[in-house]
């Protein structure tokens, strides 16, 4: 049904229908028009046979024959009365009125003028079609973060450049009975001036991180109330996802339910859903454009960033706040990942626990926080005099289709993702000289990603690869956004941060491709940022200096 209805909007199908009708009514015989609209299948088939035979031309006959193969052409003649139309057969009703184009075709059918009408309709479609989106470029004009290494992009990146670690013993709850007692926990966090006190008490922390980082991105982008008043709110959107959502709110609700449902937080359901953070931010700002969340585990942020850019490229938005947020350093979150045997147990030396590509790595370290980018259509940004940090060139998604948590052994999914991202960005692999890797410090994941990167960029002597997770741990659904901020900061500053704790590189790892233990100067031409998630979700996005 959907295929048939959508085909009615196709100029090709309209033209074919018109061709059938024009040939059928070439003699102007009104009785043929009545026959075509009679609804009797046998008479319709005989008439269409005449239509084919009367053409006298191989090309027209082929055209008519091909027309009969289209579902909509059959539907077109299935009306039971003169006022019927194709949509009645699709929706099971004869009461649906003809649309403008169908009425024009029917009026012209008896006189053989349907072909001319179809051509007119095609011209109208060309005039009324959406403006070309080829020239719509996407730029980054603001950034906001909440991390264990800082609450603004400058402080955050400066700590990364210095090689400071944000990993420490967990203080938020008693985890003495857990085999893992370390995380990239945010020790000090305030919503003052950003979120209303009443909401701060009720919301899950993932939403609070999201709201503050989102508003900080606006402030960083120079979007004051006066500036925002000039925005078209219908073309401003929010797409900030989460891998785990409001797990603390949901956990607290379960604990309350053990006593009585009357003790449950009345907001436990909406505040636990992954979409509510974006929704609440949009409500606060009055933004009525695209608004939803994506949850693809640890690849969430990249999915949100690329989809936001596509909304701008397609003309559906001029401004998008996008990224990710997660806060699951709580008993159920820690316990869940411990049960997966995914976490490092280097409790006696927290700052050394996250060590991507090192042969002594023993699992990832949980982190928490949020990262938000303010993406904007280039001309929109220039018109308001915004500072442009970098340009978003493109990206891609693929699926390993292999295992729930393990990477595909041959790395085909990651390689395909990178190659498609390069194609979407319109650049060659030689143009990329910096990669912010997913590299979580897991035994299998790090090596498979490294092999994929070596396959794609190993012949580039300028390539440099690092892992932000070596210092802040793995922020799950927020990881990609925070790492996108680090990637843009590398473009802005000309410095790439070190890989800390890489003391004994794994077998097969060429350290010439990796940034060393100290920050390094790099004139970034184009930067690729990877994020992969449980379920085999792969994502790669590409940024470059704005020129």
Strand and helix map with partners:
Layout: H1 2-8, H2 11-24, H3 30-36, H4 41-53, H5 58-68, H6 71-76, H7 86-91, H8 100-109, H9 114-128, E1 138-146, H10 153-161, E2 168-169, E3 182-183, H11 197-202, H12 205-220, H13 225-229, E4 236-241, H14 247-257, H15 276-285, H16 300-313, E5 319-326, H17 331-339, E6 369-377, H18 378-383, E7 390-399, H19 412-425, E8 434-436, H20 443-457, E9 464-466, H21 469-472, H22 479-493, E10 495-496, E11 520-521, E12 527-533, E13 537-544
Parallel strand pairs: 4-5, 8-9, 8-12
Antiparallel strand pairs: 1-6, 1-7, 2-3, 5-6, 7-13, 10-11, 12-13
Helix pairs in contact: 2-4, 2-5, 2-9, 8-9, 12-15, 16-22, 19-20
Protein name: beta-ketoacyl-[acyl-carrier-protein] synthase I
Family: Belongs to the thiolase-like superfamily. Beta-ketoacyl-ACP synthases family.
Keywords: Acyltransferase, Fatty acid biosynthesis, Fatty acid metabolism, Lipid biosynthesis, Lipid metabolism, Signal, Transferase
Brief sketch in words of this structure:
By secondary structure, the chain is α+β, with helices and mostly antiparallel strands. It has 22 helices and 13 strands. It comes from Thlaspi arvense.
Q: Write down the overall geometry.
A: globular
Helix content: 40-55%
Count of strand segments:
13
The secondary-structure class comes to: alpha+beta
Beta-sheet strand percentage? 5-15%
Backbone CA Rg: 29 Å
Which spans have pLDDT < 50 for at least 5 consecutive residues?
1-98
Rounded average pLDDT: 83
Oligomer: single chain
Largest sheet, strands/sense/barrel: 9 strands, mixed
Quote the distance from N terminus to C terminus.
47 Å
